[in-house]
Amino acid sequence: MGKKYEADPDYLLTCRRIITVISNLAGVLGSLQKALDRSVYDVHVPLDRLRVAGAHREAGLEVIRCDYFLFANFCVLNVENWRHGAAYKSVVRLCYWISKVFWLAEEFLPLFKPNPWSSPYINCVARKLCA
Q1: What is the residue range of 40's domain?
Q2: Residue among 121, 123, 125 nearest 24 (CA)
Q3: What's the Rg (C-alpha) of the chain?
Q4: Which residues are bridge partners to 128 per DSSP?
């Protein structure tokens, strides 16, 4: 991430914000992705919230907020390499229905909050330090 800003220092104009959304493959979704399709997992660098925020700071940005987003979403698992297999549709549907159960529970039970283990995303809002 830092290399983009080093290569193009005018990418963000003074005091502008950048919003970064990445998949949280450092949690359970990373383990599941690795089991379902290792080739997809291998092209990613699993980062936790602290490393995402740190990468923004190393790039010279001021981190406004960096947090996990949602409790769970198994629909982010990539099984596209299974598209022509018999199990593809079943796996996609299962991921959807499991996620839907968590989404409904999330509305009513305070137990289901974003966290490092099950959250599908990390969102980071940062801005270029004003001169």
Answers
A1: 2-128
A2: 121
A3: 17
A4: 61
Which residues face 121 on adjacent strands? 23, 69
pLDDT in tens, the chain (131 residues): 555 555 565 666 666 889 999 999 999 999 999 999 999 999 999 999 999 999 999 999 999 999 999 999 999 999 887 888 888 899 999 999 999 999 888 888 888 899 999 999 999 999 987 76
The tokens of 22 are what? 């990445």
Domain count, the chain: 1
Task: Please check whether residue 98 is in contact with residue 74, taking contact to mean a CB–CB distance below 8 angstroms.
Answer: yes
pTM of the model: 0.81
The amino acid that residue 105 corresponds to is A
